[in-house]
Specification:
Organism: Paenibacillus zeirhizosphaerae
Number of helices: 6
Pfam families: Bact_transglu_N, Transglut_core
Shape: globular
Helix content: 10-25%
InterPro entries: Bac_transglu_N, Papain-like_cys_pep_sf, Transglutaminase-like
Protein name: Transglutaminase family protein
CATH class of the largest domain: Alpha Beta
Strand content: 35-45%
Number of domains: 2
CATH architecture of the largest domain: Roll
C-alpha cells in the first residue's frame, strides 16, 4: 500500500511562553516491510531542526523556540509504501526448540531491555495472575503470543478517554477498558512474564480515508506490540484489533514502553495553563 500520513500537534497557551525545547518522534522507519519515500516536518513559530537516533534506532528531530509565543504547531507529513512481509515466518521451530532458544543466556542478554519490566509494564500480583491464566500446553512461542493478543482483545473494551497517558497495566486490569496504549502494555507485560522479548511500537493504522469519503470516526496514532519469535525474529501483533501487523500499519519506532517513544515531548518556561490537540489523517494513494 502507498499511504500518506499527516500528523499535526497544536499547543495553545493562555499567556506567552518562551524557551520551548522539544523532541519529535514522528519519522516513519524504513525497514523490510515499509519504505519512507517522503517526509517533512514544519514548526510554527519557525525553528531549526536537528536530528539524531536514540538507543533503539528511532529517528528524533529536536528544536528550540526561545522567543515568546502563544501557540506551537508541529506538522509531519510522510509518504510510505508498505508490504505484508510480517505475514511470513522464516523458519518454524519445534515448540521445544522455541523455548530452548529463549532460555539461552546470550539471547536474554541481547534483549534484556525487552524482557525486564518497566513502570508501564510492571508485573505485579494481578498481572502475574492474569499471565498464568494464558496457557497452551505444548505450544510454541508464536502460538502463545497469538493467544495472548487474542485474550487481551476479548477481555478488555476499547474506550477512548477511559484511561490517561500515565495509566499502568495494573490499573488497566482493574478498569477493564482503555486505549491501544493500554492493550499493548498489558500484552507486553504478559509476554515478558513468560520470558518472551516484547517491545512497544508506535505508528499508524490505516482504517479509512478522511479526505476522500464521509466517515464517522476520528483517526489517531496507534500502538501495538512486536514479539521475538525464534527462527524468524520480531513480528508485529495488534491486541487492540486482534490482528497480525500487515500492510495497513506504518511503524514510527519502538521502545520498552510508551515513555521511550512519546511522539512529541518537551519543556518550556511560562504558564502551566495550556491546551493540546492532535489531528491525524492516513490516506491511501
Amino acid at each position: 500500500m502507498k499511504l500518506k500520513i499527516s500528523h499535526t500537534t497544536k499547543y495553545g497557551y493562555e499567556e506567552p511562553v518562551a524557551d520551548s525545547v522539544n523532541e519529535i518522534r514522528l519519522s516513519p522507519r524504513t525497514n523490510y516491510r515499509q519504505a519512507c519515500y517522503h517526509h517533512t516536518i514544519s514548526v510554527e513559530p519557525n525553528a531549526s531542526l536537528f536530528t539524531y537516533e536514540d538507543f533503539f534506532g528511532n529517528r528524533i528531530h529536536a528544536f528550540t523556540v526561545n522567543a515568546q509565543h502563544r501557540a506551537l504547531v508541529i506538522t509531519a507529513v510522510s509518504t510510505v509504501v508498505t508490504h505484508n512481509n510480517d505475514g511470513v515466518r522464516n523458519q518454524v521451530l519445534s515448540p521445544k526448540d522455541d523455548w530452548r532458544t529463549l532460555a539461552d543466556e546470550a539471547l536474554q542478554n541481547k534483549f534484556a531491555e525487552f524482557l525486564l519490566p518497566t513502570p508501564y509494564t510492571s508485573v505485579g500480583e494481578d498481572v502475574r495472575a492474569y499471565a498464568d491464566e494464558i496457557s497452551l500446553p505444548g505450544a510454541g512461542v508464536y502460538d502463545l503470543v497469538m493467544e495472548t493478543g487474542g485474550k487481551v482483545y476479548r477481555n478488555f473494551q476499547y474506550q477512548p478517554n477511559a484511561t490517561v497517558v500515565t495509566t499502568r497495566t495494573d490499573e488497566f486490569l482493574r478498569l477493564k477498558k482503555g486505549v491501544c496504549q493500554d492493550f499493548a502494555h498489558l500484552m507486553i507485560a504478559v509476554c515478558r512474564a513468560k520470558g518472551i522479548p516484547a517491545r512497544y511500537v508506535s505508528g499508524y493504522h490505516f482504517i479509512g480515508d478522511l479526505q476522500t469519503r464521509t466517515v464517522d470516526f476520528e483517526q489517531a496514532s496507534h500502538a501495538w506490540v512486536e514479539a521475538y519469535i525464534p527462527g524468524t525474529g520480531w513480528l508485529g501483533f495488534d491486541p487492540t484489533n486482534n490482528n497480525r501487523v500487515d500492510e495497513r500499519y506504518v511503524k514510527l519506532g519502538h521502545g520498552r514502553d510508551y515513555f521511550d517513544i512519546v511522539p512529541v515531548k518537551g519543556i518550556y518556561r511560562g504558564t502551566p495553563l495550556q491546551n493540546m490537540s492532535v489531528e491525524v489523517d492516513v490516506q491511501q494513494l
